[in-house]
Every structure is written in structure tokens, then in C-alpha cells.
Amino acid sequence: MFIKLTRSGTHRYVQLVEAYRDAANGHPKQRTVATLGRLDQLNTELKSVIAGLQRVTGQTPAVASPPVVPPVLSFDAARDFGDVWTLTELWNALGFDGLRTVFGPTRHSIDVEALIRVMVFNRLCEPDSKLGVLRWLETVALPGTSLASIDHQHLLRAMDALVEHKAEVDNVMASLLRPLVDQDLAMVFYDMTTIRAAGLSEQEGDLRQYGMAKEGIVARQVMLGVVQTAEGLPLWHEVFDGNTAEVTTIKGVIEKIVTRFPIKRVVRWRTGAAVHGEPG
Fold first, then answer.
1. Which of helix, strand or coil describes residue 189?
2. Tens of pLDDT along 209-241?
3. How far apart are CA 47 and CA 64, in angstroms?
4. From CA 162, how far away is CA 120, in angstroms rounded?
5. pLDDT band at 90, cuts 50/70/90?
6. Regarding beta strands 2-8 and 11-21, do their DSSP bridges make them parallel or antiparallel, or are they unpaired?
7. Which residues pair with residue 98 across a beta bridge?
8. pLDDT at site 43
């Protein structure tokens, strides 16, 4: 016997059919033993019939397996590692980790060198504001740094510490730069540029002053002076009030750099002209 589906109108029926041979001529035939019902109405009834047949034939009724619930998958974004790992290796190889000796422990118990390193790496990878640095830290895996302990106030305090220890930092940077330049610093170049500043607030000792910008307009700005080698390696920089005249800065800058580097000749670079001078 076997199960057979037959159609009557729009409905299909489940029948138990027996196959046999006609005794008169030996031809195979079929006869319906029982109609089990409409296919769309059987549902659990059919399962009961199957279980009953298994029981009367001595078989163990199959236990229905619970429905398989597909696992819920979630994907976390991978943190960037390659660029910050490379920068960390360069930072340590060049000796910048020696800045730890400049700052030491602070009253706020923060690692100033690590926070400065974080901000420098952000400028190289994905420049942003101090709050943007915090968002960037959520996307990177920075070796040797506890990122969860860094907040906005920590970054601001690190900047304050950098200003407070400017002279010591300058000395460390000069000692690190010296092996990278040629042994005979026959010539260096000095130039100033303007950097536009936003904001209307007035602060005591504010460097943001109105002056003639490089675009030829009067704007609120700061002045940035840079000394670099003939190969373009920056040796020194200093920030001045936005209304500072370049000529008033030359003597002070020369005095500072000649105490740190054996410079023989300084060139004050201007568009279309160069003004030469000897230290001292």
C-alpha cells in the first residue's frame, strides 16, 4: 500500500491505496482502502494517524524535533591597527618616548606623553578636534595605551602640560633631531606664515590678534615661524601673536637655534627674495 494524492475540483485528498493484480487477467490494479481527508485540513490529524499506525505495528512513534532556530549573528567593526602600530614603532625608534622624562607624574595622574602621542597620531591618520580624537580612539587599537581611561579633560590637561614644559620639550626634540641632520649645518631657512583663527572670545594673553593675512586681508590669526634645513627638515618652530612683524622675530629665533644646532648661515626666506645673515 502507498499514499496517493487525488484531486477533486480545487481540493486535493490524501488516500491510502492498495496495489493488486486482477485474478482474471493478471493486470495490475489499484483500489482505495481509505480516504484520509483533505490535504489542507489534515495537519495534526495526519500526524496522529501516522503515530497510531506506528504503534499498532510495534514501532516507536517518532518524536517531533523542536523547530530549528537559526543563530543570531552580529558583526563588530574591526579596529584599525596597522597605521597606529607603525607610528608607535617609529615614535619609539626615534626616541620620542623619552618625553616621559620631561613630564613625569602630574597632579592629575595622567600620562602626558601617551596623550600627546595619541593626538599626534590622530593628526597623521585622521585629523580632528579634541572631541574628534575621542571618537577616533573608538576605531583604533593603539598598542600600549589604555584608551578607555582617556577623556576630553585629559587631552586638554596634556596640552597645558606641553605649554608649561615647552623649554624642556624643545631641548629633547633638538637632541633627537640633531642625529637626523647633516653634520655640517651650513645653511638653514627661516620663514613665517599666518594661520587664521576662529572664535570671537577674548582671553588674557591670547595669541589670536588681527593682522595682515597671507591672503592680503586683515584677519584674526596667529603667526607661525619655522626654521628648516636645506632638505626641508623642520628644526624649530615658534608661535607668535597674530599682529607680530616678521622682522622683529629674527634675532630671537636665531639666538635660540644656534644654541641647539651648529648653524653657520641663516636665510630669511621671502617670496621672490632671500635675505642672508650670519649667526651672531
1. strand
2. 999 888 889 999 999 999 888 888 888 889 999
3. 10
4. 13
5. very high
6. antiparallel
7. none
8. 67
Query: Residue 228 has which C-alpha cell?
Result: 628648516
- Taking CB atoms within 8 Å and a gap of at least 24, the contacts of 137-143 are 139/77, 139/79, 139/80, 140/79, 140/80, 140/81, 140/83, 140/84, 141/79, 141/80, 141/81, 141/84, 142/84, 142/88, 142/118, 143/84, 143/85, 143/88
Q: Which single residue is written with the C-alpha cell 502507498?
A: 2
Distance of CA 175 to the CA centre of its chain: 32
d(CA 235, CA 261): 9
DSSP labels, 207-253: --EEEE-TTSSEEEEEEEEEEEETTS-EEEEEEEETT--GGGTHHHH
- Cell numbers standing for residue 233: 627638515
Q: Are strands 266-270 and 188-196 parallel, antiparallel or unpaired?
A: parallel
**Residue 20 parent element (H or E):** strand 11-21
Which grid coordinates are listed for 225?
615661524
pTM recorded for the entire structure: 0.60
Cα 27 versus chain centre, distance: 81
**Confidence (pLDDT) at 203:** 83
For the chain, give every domain's residue range.
2-56, 82-169, 184-199+206-277
What distance lies between CA 109 and its chain's CA centroid? 26
Q: Which of 47-51, 69-73, 78-82, 263-267 has the lowest mean pLDDT?
A: 47-51
The answer to whether the beta carbons of residues 225 and 191 sit under 8 Å apart is yes
Phi and psi angles of residue 269, each rounded to the nearest 5 degrees, phi first: -95, 130
Cβ atoms within 10 Å of 161's Cβ, excluding its own? 21
In percent, the amount of the chain with pLDDT more than 70 equals 88
Instruction: Give the pLDDT of residue 111.
Output: 87
